[in-house]
TrEMBL record:
CDD domains (UniProt xref): EFh, NOX_Duox_like_FAD_NADP
Recorded GO CC terms: NADPH oxidase complex
Pfam families recorded: EF-hand_5 (PF13202), EF-hand_6 (PF13405), FAD_binding_8 (PF08022), Ferric_reduct (PF01794), NAD_binding_6 (PF08030)
Molecular-function annotations in GO: calcium ion binding; superoxide-generating NAD(P)H oxidase activity
Membrane topology reported for the UniProt record: Multi-pass membrane protein
Protein name: NOX5 oxidase
Annotated TM spans: 229-248, 254-279, 300-321, 356-374, 386-405, 571-594
Keyword Calcium listed: yes
FAD-binding FR-type domain sequence ranges: 430-564
Source organism, top-level taxon: Eukaryota
Keywords attached to this entry: Calcium, FAD, Flavoprotein, Membrane, Metal-binding, NADP, Oxidoreductase, Transmembrane, Transmembrane helix
PROSITE patterns to which the protein is assigned, alphabetical: EF_HAND_1, EF_HAND_2, FAD_FR
């Protein structure tokens, strides 16, 4: 447990606040008994497995009464917080010295004096004074469970002996306290912040650092969002100008009519602009032009949603202003009631045949329905078809707008023709015939890996995505997925699809077969070959028939912000979970181009160094960061990453043009007392074997979440050129990374559909 301020000491005020918080939390748990038992202790610490809770409880229970009082708890925690490194290491040693409590044989000798309970029995907190291999193996087994890591027994034995041989300095067959301290001194990051972190429930909330000004007013924020902010400013300014010009032109006809005409002119522009924002093929083409550096093309879907809300608001004001004007006209004219103005066609009322009022009301209803059924709660709750069919009402809306507004066609002519052309091209692709799914792999965490035959003239860039339709799953549904194979792969396309919604779950279940009972979980490096062979192309006649019936159609490709990677100097690629998908294609293509750039002349054997860069790739350095929740998620692309590591080692031994960083968030960090031994053992074994025990890669998998300040500081210190950060993952993590990028002055790009 560390002090709230994160240092090894606390001020008097902080110490008083900490003690007050401890007492408050303890009273909430202990109630009237004023003591907590083992079960309450486990619940409070939120420990996944019981081993460490029992060890901590036994060590905190100094009198061996079977309960922990507030005084005992405060004494133990004060030692951990205010004590020196020796005190903390001694506590760690006692946690590992388990033979008395767990019935293991001692290793000879005794450290300290055995603690005796008030009943005269020896306390379970006292060990034999040294740690033998059996004790170490037992603790490491529980460390693995606590970190949600599954390794076979032989691998556990390797970890045990790696750590034991390193710590047993005198080769006596046991580890003493002094030997453990000497070994830990080789891990300074552990010594700096030794904590049990299981007692975080006792820490007061850390004080939030407040900036003297809002984040949105910082220079870094405006620099990183300059394209989007400039575009928004231009958009707002253009709407104000259109409104003002139209309102002034009709000011003599009354205030309500002037407002209605102003909103109507803005609607002419915005309803046409909605089509422009969904011209995916045109936008993909624009990404290859200098315009991409000015316009925020990556945000086109977000802007489409924003303009949709603006259209609904303008339509409501436009309709309300007309109704108010009709009410004004209906009062002095007794022959025409308000209902007649709204529901009857009248010559001169506007629109085709004087139907402006009727078409306007119909438009208002269609727009409201489209907006209501476009909400995320509809699209992501298994009712995608409702969103799909109501969104098709854009055809009716544009038709009614042409009938309603006399000048709308002038605004809509060019965007409408481009939109129709894109639809015709997409329809032609679909009419050309369905594509064959040649292979399906069902990966952990319900990920479906589709291998699809590549159309003859299908050209795409790394990181592009396609819309996929599989009639066997849903006839009319099209969903976007990133292509995970590189463009240099000529015969097939890869798609990795995570089961997160109704359609993706149906896809996984469609190809799912009852699995045969298998042995205990195996390490990633060994089990991958077996799991990778579970392919539908090899399941016999039934599988072949299923694949044949599951033909698909694709629409695309469409570009994303990741196309900028190849024109960066130092690219940082961050994928969270299945967010690695776009980077799988990009990493393959990067290494292909890197190899081509390193090729030497066959005549003079001159080798082109990386200082001579082609127009396709200006990269000097690539940092790839992959964050996963648990061990099995690494199986999705670990074979690809292994191949990339081997290729780089063959091309440039010792050079790290592509540097990988793996993080497993379920694993406890190195400064957590429940994981120190395991992480030390993993480090030692990785150094010895030159491969990671969790993934089989040469890159060591780091426990916990990245320290973004430390990661980006290292990137900045390398000075490989202008840094651009590309992220694909959850919106919550995107906000965190974006804030750090603004702090370091890095450009930030997020994958958007």
């Amino acid at each position: 447990l560390c002090p709230p301020a994160g240092s090894c000491t606390m001020s008097t005020a902080e110490d008083a606040e900490w003690l007050r918080q401890v007492r408050k939390q303890f009273r909430n748990i202990a109630g009237e008994h004023k003591e907590i038992n083992l079960e309450e202790f486990k619940s409070a610490l939120q420990v996944k497995e019981s081993f460490f809770a029992e060890r901590f409880f036994a060590l905190f229970d100094s009198d061996g009464s079977g309960t922990v009082s507030l005084e005992e708890l405060l004494k133990a925690l004060s030692l951990l917080v205010h004590g020196n490194q020796t005190d903390k290491l001694r506590f760690l040693f006692q946690v590992y010295d388990v033979d008395e409590l767990w019935g293991l044989s001692g290793c000879g000798g005794a450290w300290g004096v055995p603690a005796v309970t008030r009943h005269g029995a020896r306390s379970p907190r006292a060990g034999s004074g040294c740690i033998d291999p059996d004790e170490l193996r037992l603790v490491l087994r529980w460390c693995l469970r606590e970190s949600a890591i599954a390794l076979p027994e032989e691998r556990l034995a390797d970890l045990t002996w790696a750590l034991f041989e390193a710590a047993d300095k005198d080769h006596s067959g046991s580890i003493t306290f002094e030997e453990l301290r000497e070994e830990l001194e080789g891990f300074p990051e552990v010594m700096e912040n030794l904590t049990i972190s299981a007692a975080s429930w006792l820490k007061p909330p850390p004080p939030r650092e407040r900036s003297c000004r809002p984040r949105y007013l910082t220079r870094a924020y405006w620099h990183n969002h300059r394209g989007k902010l400039a575009f928004l400013g231009g958009y707002v300014g253009l709407n104000l100008l259109l409104f003002a010009l139209a309102a002034l032109r009709h000011a003599g006809l009354g205030g309500w009519l002037a407002v209605a005409r102003g909103c109507g002119q803005c609607l002419n522009f915005n309803c046409s602009f909605l089509a422009v924002l969904m011209l995916r093929r045109c936008l993909t083409w624009l990404r290859a032009t200098p315009i991409a550096k000015v316009l925020p093309l990556d945000q086109h879907v977000v802007f489409h949603q924003l303009v949709g809300y603006v259209v609904l608001a303008l339509a409501a004001v436009h309709t309300g202003a007309h109704v108010a004007n009709f009410s004004r006209l209906a009062r002095p004219d007794g022959r025409h009631a308000l209902a007649e103005y709204l529901l009857s066609a009248r010559p001169g009322a506007g629109g085709l045949g004087g139907t402006a009022s009727q078409t306007g009301l119909a438009l208002q209803g269609l727009l409201a329905a489209m907006l209501a059924f476009s909400s995320p709660c509809i699209r992501r709750s298994g009712h995608f078809e409702v969103f799909y069919w109501t969104h098709l009402s854009y055809i009716s809306i544009w038709t009614l707008l042409i009938l309603h507004g006399p000048h709308f066609w002038k605004w809509f002519a060019v965007p409408g023709c481009l939109f129709a052309l894109e639809k015709v091209v997409g329809l032609a692709w679909r009419r050309a015939g369905g594509l064959r799914i040649v292979e399906v792999n069902l990966l952990p965490s319900k990920v479906t890996h589709l291998v699809i035959e590549r159309p003859q003239f299908f050209r795409y860039k790394p990181g592009d995505y396609v819309y996929l339709n599989i009639p066997a799953i849903a006839t009319y549904e099209w969903h976007p997925f990133t292509i995970s194979s590189a463009p240099e792969q000529q015969e097939t396309l890869w798609l990795h699809i995570r089961s997160l919604g109704q359609w993706t779950n149906k896809l996984y279940e469609y190809f799912q077969q009852p699995e045969l009972p298998g042995p205990e979980p195996k390490p990633l490096s060994r089990s991958l070959r077996e799991k990778r062979c579970r392919r539908w192309a090899q399941v016999g006649a039934d599988g072949a028939q299923l694949l044949a019936s599951a033909g698909c159609y694709i629409d695309g490709p469409y570009g994303t912000s990741t196309r900028r990677i190849f024109t960066s100097e130092h690219a940082v690629l961050i994928g969270a979970g299945i967010g690695i998908t776009p980077f799988a294609s990009i990493l393959q293509s990067i290494m292909y181009r890197y190899r081509r750039r390193k090729q030497s002349c066959p005549s003079c054997h001159y080798s082109w160094c990386e200082d001579l860069r082609d127009e396709e790739m200006t990269l000097r350095k690539v940092d790839f960061i992959w964050i996963n929740r648990d061990q099995k998620h690494f199986e999705w692309f670990v074979s690809l990453l292994t191949k990339l590591e081997m290729e780089q080692a063959e091309q440039e031994p010792g050079e790290q043009f592509l540097e990988m960083h793996m993080y497993m968030t379920s694993a406890l960090s190195k400064n957590d007392m429940k994981a120190i031994g395991l992480q030390m053992a993993l480090d030692l074994l990785a150094a010895k074997e030159q491969r990671d025990s969790i993934t089989g890669l040469r890159t060591r998998t780091q426990p916990g979440r990245p320290d973004w300040s430390k990661v980006f500081r290292k990137v900045a210190e390398e000075k490989k050129g202008k840094v651009q950060v590309f992220f694909c993952g959850s919106p919550a993590l995107a906000k965190v990374i974006r804030a750090h990028c603004e702090h370091f002055g890095f450009r930030f790009f997020k994958e958007n559909f």
